[in-house]
Amino acid sequence: MKDNNQAVEISVEQAKLLGSAQRVKIIGTIVSTAKTAKQVADELGESPGSIHYHIQKLHDGGLIDLVETRTVGGIVEKYYKSKAKWFNTKGTQLVDPVLADDYDAASSTKISLRMQLSPEQREEMTEDFKRLLEKWLALTTNAKAENSQEYAIGFKLISAEMTE
Q1: How far apart are the first and last CA of the chain?
Q2: Does residue 48 come out as left (phi exceeding 0), alpha (psi in the -120 to 50 range) or beta?
Q3: Which helix (H) or strand (E) holds 76?
Q4: Which of 4, 36, 39, 141 has the highest Cβ tally under 10 A?
Q5: Distance CA 13, CA 159 (A)
Q6: What pTM did the predictor assign?
Q7: What residues contact residue 89 under an 8 Å CB cut-off, 6+ apart?
Q8: What per-residue confidence (pLDDT) applies to 150?
Q9: What does pLDDT average to in each consecutive run of 10 residues of the chain (164 residues)?
């Protein structure tokens, strides 16, 4: 059985599909349980047509799988499941172009520092950040605050040692 917490390597083209908070929310709802577009729409409080469109794009892009098809009362129900909870791009291009240093954002916060970490501490910190991001995604999944804006966040932990 595949570990959903393990990051899946994706292409830059696939990463572009994740450049939408709506699609990230969809991935979050089908990461552990396969669901139909209607079930996802109900869970997110969105229109089934909009969710179906985004699910098709994610499926066509190879980020989610069609895992089951059922016919109920003459209606075909398609159940989709995410290939992973986390995705990493191959190469040097950013997963989300909004995170590029030259993106002209209305607001931005940058935080950086250096620290000494053992390999175990590095892994623990990475898992802590994943949990923090998952917490905030869950808190905002159904949020429809009138003054909310879409934000991009990236976590990059880099060894200060150069490769040989």
Answers
A1: 36
A2: alpha
A3: strand 75-82
A4: 36
A5: 27
A6: 0.73
A7: 9, 10, 11, 12, 14, 15, 95
A8: 81
A9: 66 84 90 94 91 96 96 93 85 69 83 89 91 84 70 82 80
CA distance 61 to 120: 34
Which tokens sit at 34? 């396969």
For 19, the token pair is: 């450049």
Residues 155 and 24: their CA atoms lie apart, in Å, by 16
pLDDT at 42: 93
pLDDT score for 93: 64
6 token code pair: 């393990």
Do 82 and 64 touch, CB atoms closer than 8 A? yes
pLDDT of residue 118: 93
Which of the 8 DSSP states describes residue 95? S
**What is the token pair recorded at 1?**
């059985």
Q: Which of 52, 77, 64 is nearest to 14 (CA)?
A: 64
